[in-house]
Amino acid sequence: MTANSSSTEIFYQLLDLNEAEQQRSLDDLKKRHPSLYQQVLPLINVNQATDAALTQLLGFHVKQVFDNDISFNGLTIDKYKINDEIGRGGMGVVHSAERCDKTFEQELAIKFIQPSLTDILGKAFLFQEAQLLARLNHPYIAKVFDGGEHQGYVYIVMEKVKGRTINEVINSGNLNQRQKLQLFILICQAIQHAHQNQILHADIKPENVLVDDALMPKVLDFNIIQKQQQSSQDAAPLLAYSKAFASPEQQNGQYLTNQSDVFSLGKLLLFMVGEQPAKADLKLIIDKATKENAGQRYSSVIELMADIKSILNQRPISLKAHKPFYVTHKLIQRRPLPSALAGCLLLCAVLFSATLVHKNRQLEQEKAIAEDMMFEVTSLLFHSKGDVDRQMSVQTMLELTRRRILSNPDLPQHIKQKMLLAMMTPVPEKHSIKIDCQQNCATSVSN
């Protein structure tokens, strides 16, 4: 304990000590830091056995020692018959109950609040908060039905929830990743419903969510202590929270917003999926939800929930929706068969277009070759004109043509080879018949 520690931090440190150690620490604090001692002492006097679970005012997980001499078992209070005890602690004691007027058959739980806490918070405040919670009507939130007072004990009548905490469910190892995310979405729906009714939970953690055999959650223990601290500047600094899941602003005693619950949901998600999320998208979502700066987090539980649904449906999350390759990859994952067919069609179209372009170029090339060959033939005929004595032999014309073909850079090599091969084919010799005009004429005359 140092002078830089806040009274709240010292208070929670003292709660981890036994009675003798706690007294020694208080004596030491009184000597070294009298001002801090004066701030911490009222908190200790409220309840020597109180721990960080002050937020369990409306829950069923009371763990501290309540007065063992006090028992409500078997009593009839108002229209409720009190049955077996469910649990007890520094906040109060919880009993199962049933209606004794025979009008309805309901499994109920009645929480009797510690009188010392009633003195601090006030009966009006407790009933006001219970009334706000009673307005919440959601299948994944434990329902508050009624409230009253009995011999100085404020009691609240609630739905009796059967199930295991998320701690137990996750540690059982029976849930796969998809089931965990589906369960988390249901919890988000419950918190979003509370936000729509202007109610913060302010203490979201695994112990405050029960899960039944059908993997349906029930959110418990809304933190009305935190709201009381914010609404009254003169109130004792009872900053009740779970450090592992509370937002930085809550730990610093600052004003809470919806983003504070978003932070706690991000921490809860991290707890559910493990310290090292396998999916990169999931890690981005957790990092976004648990930013130190509240303004950098998701602005609402709806946005957080939407990204989790995107992972389940293999759609792009909002944090990466601007990346075209990522969006395309998600589309292929989501619709592999249509994407494969579309890819095949696109490939066929590309190949068909490439073939057309190739054929078009080939036709243009052949056209150019034909024009060049026509030019060569024309040139050959032009050089073959003249007097009979100057006429070139066939071999001479072929040699001239061969040279012109070889020197033409526009003709493709394979065309040159074919043309040269054709020109090398020997031409059959034609024997001309010479007629001796004088001899023929003499013969004719003699005859």
Automatic annotation (TrEMBL):
Which key words are in the record? ATP-binding, Kinase, Nucleotide-binding, Serine/threonine-protein kinase, Transferase
Domain Protein kinase: from-to ranges: 80-332
**UniProt cross-references to InterPro entries, sorted A to Z:** Kinase-like_dom_sf, Prot_kinase_dom, Protein_kinase_ATP_BS, Ser/Thr_kinase_AS
Q: Does the keyword Glycosyltransferase apply?
A: no
> Which Pfam families does the entry mention?
Pkinase
Listed binding positions for ATP are: K111
Metal-binding as a keyword? no
Q: Which GO terms describe its molecular function?
A: ATP binding; protein serine/threonine kinase activity
Question: Out of the domains of life, which is the source?
Answer: Bacteria
Q: What is this protein called in UniProt?
A: Serine/threonine protein kinase
**UniProt organism field:** Photobacterium marinum
The top of its lineage is:
Bacteria, Pseudomonadati, Pseudomonadota, Gammaproteobacteria, Vibrionales
